[in-house]
Design goal:
Radius of gyration: 25 Å
Distance between the termini: 52 Å
CATH class of one domain: Alpha Beta
Helix content: 25-40%
Structural class: alpha/beta
CATH topology of one domain: GMP Synthetase, Chain A, domain 3
CATH superfamily of one domain: ANL, C-terminal domain
Number of strands: 34
C-alpha cells in the first residue's frame, strides 16, 4: 500500500503543477487568464453565452476548482464522438479525495459533513468531515481486503443511513464502481440488477424502516442472490442498532462492524477522468435494466459548481435534499455535490407526512438551520393534503425551496410559497444528465419569482432546442420535443452499461446532432422552458397535441381536488381522448364532481381537449422518488396486460384505480392488476 503521507504530498504537488500545466495553449490560441476568470462569473445571460461560445475555456476554468492528481491534456477530446464526449482527457483524479480529504487538509475536519435525522427510529447523528473520512478510509480498506480493486463493481442495497454514503465514497476512493439499488426493492427486481451488473461484492443492511413496518432487507437479498445467475464473492451486512439482527450466511456474509474494526484504511486511488464513477439503473421500455454510466471527471467538476451557480449555496451553508440515495437526486445532491462543495448535507430518513406528522419538513429546516432545500412536488402535495393550513415558523434560515422529479402545478406552488415563506423554484433534469438541464439559477442572479409553469432556462453548458417530428424548430409557445445540441456538457452519462448500441439508438438516432430528452415542452419569448410531460404523455386528440400536465393543472385548480392524473384512452371518433383520475379532499358525489371538472377543463383548456371521462380514486400511485407512473394507468385503461412498477410505494391503489376505470367504461376485460399479482 502506498504511504498515505507520500501520496497526499504527491497529490498536493500535482495539484499545484496541474494549474501550471493546464495553462496550455488551446487550438484557438493561448487563453488569457483575465478573460478565463470572467467566463463562469456574472449574470445568467453572460455565463450561459460564454458556456456555449467558449466551451473548452469555460469548463477548463471550472475544472480548476478541484484537485487533479494528473493534469488533463485536453479539455474536450476533439477526436471523441459527439455522442460520447471525452471531457478532461488524460486527467486523473479521485472523487473521494475531492469530497473529503482536501477539506480535512484545509482545516475543515471539525465541520459537520452529514446530519442524519431519522424520525422513523427517533435518532439523530452528526458526523464531521474528519470522522467521515476515517470511516470511508476503513471501509475502503475492507473492500480491498476482500478483493475489490479499481474497475470492479459493488452493488449497494441500503436504507437512508450514513453508512450508505460511507459505502459509496469508499468505492470511489479505490476506483471501484458502485451501483446503489433502492433499499426495499423486491427480490425479483434486485435479482435482475445483480445479474445485469455482476458485482464483485454487495453491501447491504439488516433492514429499513417504513412508517408502519420494518422491512427486512437480508431475506430479500438472500432470495435475490439465489435466483440470480451471478453470485457475489461476499456480502457486507450492516446490522442496524436496536433492531432485529439479520441471519448471516457463513463464508459469504461479513459483519460491517467487525470488518471496520479490523481495517487499516486505504489511500485514494486516482482514476482517469472518463473512468466510471457509478452505474445507476433507470426506467426503460424493455425488461432489461438500463444502467446509466457516470464518468468521474465531469461529475466531480460540475456538481460543486452547480451548488453555487444553480442553487446559490455557499460553502458554510446547510443543504437538505429530501431524496433517497437510490435515485439520481440522492447521488448528486445528497451525497456528492454538497460534500464536494464542503457543505453540511442533511440525510433525512422519514416521509413528508406520517413520520409522525406533517410538520417534519418544517422541523428539520428550523432545527438544522437549512439554508436551501430540494424536494419533489409530490412531497409538497402530501403535506398540503394532510394540513392545508401548515406553515413554517418565522425566523428560519431557509431562502429557497427547489423542486424536481415531476411537474409542479401552480396550485401546489402557490400554496407551498405561503407555507414555506420562500420562492418554490422548479428545475428539470434526468438520471442521464446528473444535474439540472433547466433551472432558475439563483447563483447567477435569475428572477426568484419566475413565470408560472416554467422550469427555468437552460443551465450553462446546455444548448436546448424544441423540434417537431420532422426535425423542424417549433415556434414560441408551441409544444415540441426538447433536445440538447451535442456535445453534452461534462457530468452527463457517457453510455449505458453493456448496451452502447442501445444508448445510441435510444438517445441520439431520431434527432441527428442532438440528445433526445424524450420530454415535451415549450419556450416563451424570454427563453423560459416549460417542461410539460414525457413525449409519451402528450395526448393527440384529433390532431391537436396537448400536454397531460396542462389538463392535470386544470383539474388541480378545482378546490376539492388534491391530486390528479390524466392519460390518453382510446376513442372511436377522435382516436384518443383524455381521461382523468382525481383524489378529493372531502366526500363528493362523483357524477356531480365530474360535471364540474368537465366544465373546469373546458374553461381552462378549451373544448378542443374533449375532456369527458373522469372518476374519483382514493389515491394515486407514486414511485419512491415522487413520480406518478402514468404509462401503467394508460396501459390498464387500454385493456392491455400490465405489471405494477416495482418502484410504486403502495401497489394496492391499483385496485381502486381499476374499479374507477371500469366505471368510465375502460379496463373491462382485464383483471385487477394488484389482486392478480398477489
Amino acid at each position: 500500500m502506498q504511504n498515505s503521507r507520500h501520496f497526499i504530498t504527491k497529490l498536493a504537488t500535482s495539484h499545484v503543477k496541474s494549474f501550471q500545466v493546464r495553462k496550455f495553449a488551446l487550438e484557438s490560441g493561448k487563453r488569457s487568464t483575465s478573460r478565463a476568470a470572467a467566463l463562469s462569473v456574472g449574470d445568467y445571460d453572460t455565463v450561459h453565452r460564454n458556456s456555449l461560445k467558449h466551451k473548452e475555456q469555460f469548463w477548463d476554468e471550472i475544472a480548476q476548482n478541484i484537485v487533479w492528481h494528473k493534469p488533463y491534456t485536453q479539455v474536450l477530446d476533439a477526436d471523441s464522438l459527439p455522442t460520447s464526449p471525452m471531457w478532461f482527457r488524460g486527467g486523473e483524479l479521485n472523487t473521494c479525495y475531492n469530497a473529503l480529504d482536501r477539506h480535512v487538509e484545509a482545516g475543515k475536519g471539525s465541520k459537520v459533513a452529514i446530519i442524519h435525522d431519522s424520525p422513523v427510529t427517533g435518532s439523530k447523528r452528526n458526523i464531521t468531515y474528519a470522522e467521515l473520512l476515517d470511516e470511508v478510509k476503513r471501509m475502503a480498506g475492507v473492500l480491498v481486503k476482500h478483493g475489490v480493486t479499481k474497475g470492479d463493481k459493488v452493488l449497494i442495497y441500503m436504507p437512508l443511513v450514513i453508512e450508505t454514503m460511507v459505502a459509496m465514497l469508499a468505492c470511489t476512493r479505490i476506483g471501484a464502481i458502485h451501483c446503489v439499488v433502492f433499499g426495499g426493492f423486491a427480490a425479483q427486481e434486485l435479482s435482475r440488477r445483480i445479474t445485469h451488473l455482476g458485482p464483485k461484492l454487495i453491501i447491504s443492511a439488516s433492514c429499513g424502516i417504513e412508517p408502519s413496518r420494518v422491512v427486512e432487507y437480508k431475506p430479500l437479498l438472500d432470495t435475490a442472490i439465489q435466483i440470480s445467475s451471478h453470485k457475489p464473492d461476499h456480502c457486507i451486512i450492516f446490522q442496524r442498532p436496536h433492531l432485529p439482527e439479520a441471519k448471516m450466511q457463513k463464508t459469504r456474509d461479513l459483519d460491517w462492524n467487525e470488518e471496520m474494526a479490523q481495517s487499516q484504511g486505504h489511500d485514494p486511488v486516482p482514476v482517469e477522468s472518463n473512468h466510471p464513477c457509478y452505474i445507476l439503473h433507470t426506467s426503460g421500455t424493455t425488461g432489461k435494466p438500463k444502467g446509466i454510466v457516470r464518468p468521474t471527471g465531469g461529475h466531480a467538476v460540475v456538481l460543486p459548481w452547480t451548488m453555487k451557480a444553480v442553487f446559490g449555496i455557499e460553502e458554510d451553508d446547510v443543504w437538505w435534499s429530501a431524496s433517497d440515495l437510490g435515485w439520481v437526486v440522492g447521488h448528486s445532491y445528497v451525497c456528492y455535490a454538497p460534500l464536494l462543495n464542503c457543505n453540511t448535507t442533511v440525510l433525512y430518513e422519514g416521509k413528508p407526512v406520517g413520520t409522525p406528522d406533517s410538520n417534519q419538513f418544517f422541523r428539520v429546516i428550523k432545527e438544522h438551520n437549512v439554508k436551501k432545500m430540494f424536494t419533489s412536488p409530490s412531497a409538497l402535495r402530501a403535506i398540503k393534503k394532510v394540513d392545508e393550513e401548515a406553515s413554517i415558523a418565522d425566523g428560519t434560515q431557509l431562502e429557497h425551496c427547489f423542486v424536481a422529479g415531476e411537474c409542479l402545478d401552480h396550485v401546489t406552488r402557490a400554496w407551498a410559497e405561503e407555507a414555506f415563506k420562500v420562492p418554490i423554484l422548479n428545475n428539470w433534469w434526468q438520471t442521464e444528465s446528473g444535474f439540472p438541464i433547466t433551472a432558475h439559477c439563483m447563483g447567477l442572479g435569475m428572477n426568484p419569482n419566475p413565470p408560472r409553469g416554467t422550469t427555468g432556462k437552460p443551465v450553462p453548458g446546455y444548448d436546448i432546442d424544441l423540434l417537431n417530428s420532422e426535425n423542424e424548430h417549433v415556434g414560441l409557445g408551441e409544444l415540441g420535443r426538447i433536445v440538447c445540441r451535442l456535445p453534452l456538457p461534462p457530468g452527463c452519462f457517457s453510455t449505458l452499461y453493456e448496451a452502447h448500441t442501445r444508448y445510441i439508438d435510444t438517445y441520439f438516432k431520431q434527432f441527428q446532432g442532438y440528445y433526445d430528452t424524450m420530454d415535451a415542452g415549450m419556450k416563451d419569448k424570454d427563453g423560459y422552458i416549460s417542461v410539460l410531460s414525457r413525449e409519451d404523455d402528450v395526448i393527440n386528440v384529433s390532431g391537436h397535441r396537448m400536454s397531460a400536465l396542462a389538463l392535470e393543472e386544470a383539474l388541480m385548480e378545482h378546490p376539492d381536488v388534491t391530486d390528479a392524473i390524466v392519460c390518453g384512452v382510446p376513442d372511436d371518433l377522435k382516436g384518443v381522448v383524455p381521461l382523468g383520475l382525481v383524489v378529493v379532499s372531502r366526500d363528493r358525489d362523483e357524477k356531480e364532481l365530474v360535471q364540474e371538472l368537465v366544465k373546469h377543463v373546458r374553461d381552462h383548456v378549451g373544448p378542443v381537449a374533449a375532456f369527458k371521462h373522469c372518476a374519483i380514486v382514493t389515491a394515486l400511485p407514486h414511485t419512491r422518488n415522487g413520480k406518478i407512473p402514468r404509462g401503467s394507468i394508460a396501459t390498464l385503461a387500454r385493456g392491455d396486460k400490465m405489471t405494477i412498477p416495482s418502484t410504486v410505494e403502495d401497489a394496492s391503489v391499483y385496485s381502486n384505480i381499476h374499479a374507477a376505470l371500469q366505471r368510465c367504461g375502460f379496463a373491462l376485460n382485464v383483471p385487477d392488476p394488484y389482486s392478480n399479482q398477489m
